[in-house]
Structure formats: structure tokens, C-alpha cells
Amino acid sequence: MFDIDRLEMKEGCSDSVWPVIKSGLNLRDVGIMTERHYIYPMRSKSVTLLLCILLSHPGVYAQRDFSDSEVTKLVLLGTGNPNPSPAQSGCALALVVNDVPYVVDFGPGLIRRAAALSPRYGGDIEGLTIKNIKRAFLTHLHSDHTTGYPDLILTPWVMGRDEPLEVYGPAGITDMTGHILEAYREDIRYRLYGAEPANDAGWRVNCHEILEEGIFYQDANIRAEAFPVPHGTWPNAWGFRFSTPDRVIVISGDTAPSEKIVEYASGADILVHEVYSHAGYERKSESWKSYHAEHHTSTLELAGIARRADPGLVVLYHILFWGSTEEELLDEISGSYDGKVIVGRDLDIF
């Protein structure tokens, strides 16, 4: 029998992983996420060494739950960017308030990431049952934030959503939605009039274009405010501030440094902000440096924003590592900001 107490940390098993291994927890308490699978449960301590090897792989890690609220949960469905990183699904978040889900951005893979945390697939968040996804908010129309949009429209319908999806986003979202529905016209027709049981409501979408700063959505669970952010020459790119019964959460969207983020994130419980590695930036060509400086925010610039806004927690997403490690990103930020910062990973819960 494998003796957990005599096991020593091996090279390649990170400090963050080893306490999980040595704790002697039943491995059913640890979810394992790979690029293609969310494996749950694992029970035997005899596979502990295998777990260490798996978790040391860059595309595999233990799912993390930092949440301390029974009312509001923020879920990182995807922390990636246009680069096809196997460890990062496309940019997408879910705010779950009183078990009601609200999706923010529609990067590739968002529905399967949400399913991974739903009870059907071994998770604990009832609100992420796929047919329950009925409201979604979009920051801007870039492809890495929208290629999951057909999945968001169609898969919850196939799984039983029986009312139209309500979508709020920038000017252009109505046209994009129409084109998607036209592209899938034959699929929708077959599901409606073939042998498959299907309702005639859940595939439909009601679009609401955000045209000005301020409150754009409100119900018993959340108040959603939009504010403009500078993302190159995009005419309509938004950040969002969400107020729930017990949390204020601000999401930057894709943005260069912005005074609006300082304003709206001031005193927030959580600021979720995009970021790129300053060290990686310095290795880029001059043309790419110019592009990223106009479209995105470096670790050093984010430190300045966080220092002024003073949120309770900064969570990094839409992360451009460019060869840097998580620790190096945190070191760059901590040089001028001493608040709490977490490098977000797919399926993190806050």
C-alpha cells in the first residue's frame, strides 16, 4: 500500500500543490481539470503520486474555491485571450447570485466550463445548470469574447431552456446575433420539426444594446452599470460594475489604463482586471508594443490602478503571460501595490 506519510516532495511538484497532496484528503475532494476533461471523483490515496504529476503539468490543476458568500459567487469560466492556450479557455465569467446565473463575455468553451461546476457533472453550483443560463452581458465584440456565443444561444436551449436568452452588449450585438441565428437556421429547423423534442422559445434571443454609461440592467439580485473603457479604437467597449446584496464586483473588460476603472472600482469587493506581463512586453517588437499599450494594461499599470481604487481583492484574467510565471506577474504588481492579488485560473470561484 502507498504510504502518503513517507512521501517526499519531488522535483516539479509545486509548493502550492504539495500541501494538497500531504493533507491526506480523499481525492474525491479535489477536482482535476485538463484541456479536455474535468475528472471527478478520484478516491484512492494510492494515486497521490499520479495527482502530483498531473497537477505539475501546466494544463492541469486543482479547481480552487475562494468564496465566502452563500449569496454571490463569481466564477472564472475562462481566463484566456486570443492565443489558444490549452490551460485557458476563452474569456468568460459567471456571476451567480441566489443561484441565478449571469454570464459576462462569451469566449470559446464557456458552456462546458460552466457545466463542469454544475451538479450534473459533479459540481456544487446549481445556478450553473446549463438550461438556467438566461441572461448574458458582453463587454465588446472581439472574437475571443464572442466565439462561444452560438454555444450560449443553442446549447442551453438543447438542454431545456424554454425562454429567450436576454443579451446586453455594445452596438452591433443585434447584427451579430442575427447572423448567428441565420447560420444555424437549418439546425434550429431540424430540432424544431424533426423527431427531437424541442421548444420554440429557448433558441430565441432578445438583444439590448448598451448605448450610454450608467445602469443598464437591474433585478432583485443585481444592479449592472456600464462604463466606457479605452480599447484601441473600438467605439463601443465597456467595463461593468455589478452590485449584489452582499458584493460589489467590477469587471474591466479589455482596456488600456482607464480613469473610469479607478472611479467605478473604488472600494469594490473584487476588481477583475485584464493584464499583460511587463517583462514579456519588453521583449516584443515595437509594433506589438504600440498595439498592446493602446489596447491592454500591464502589470505595472494595473498596480497603479489598484493602488488608487483600493478594492478588497484584485483578480487577474485575460492574462498575457508571454513566458512569465504567475509568481513573476505577482512580483511585478507587488513592486508598487501591496493589496491582495490572485492570478485567476479557469474554474476559480470567488
Total domain units: 2
Strands of the widest sheet, in order across it, are: 10-11-12-13-14-15-16
Q: What is the tally of beta strands?
A: 16
Q: Which parts are unreliable, with pLDDT below 50 for 5 consecutive residues or more? A: 1-44, 53-59
CATH class category of the largest domain: Alpha Beta
In CATH, the topology of the largest domain is named Metallo-beta-lactamase, Chain A
What is the share of helical residues?
25-40%
Description:
The chain has 350 residues and is α/β, with parallel strands linked by helices. The chain folds into 2 domains: 4-55, no CATH class; 64-130 and 212-343, Metallo-beta-lactamase, Chain A (4-Layer Sandwich), CATH 3.60.15.10. Helix content is 26%, strand content 22%. It contains 11 helices and 16 strands. The strands form 3 sheets. It has a 7-stranded mixed sheet. α7 packs across α10 (299-309) and α10 packs across α11 (326-334). The longest helix has 11 residues, at 173-183. The chain is globular. It starts with 17 loop residues before the first helix and ends in a 7-residue tail after the last strand. The model is unreliable at 1-44 and 53-59 (pLDDT under 50).
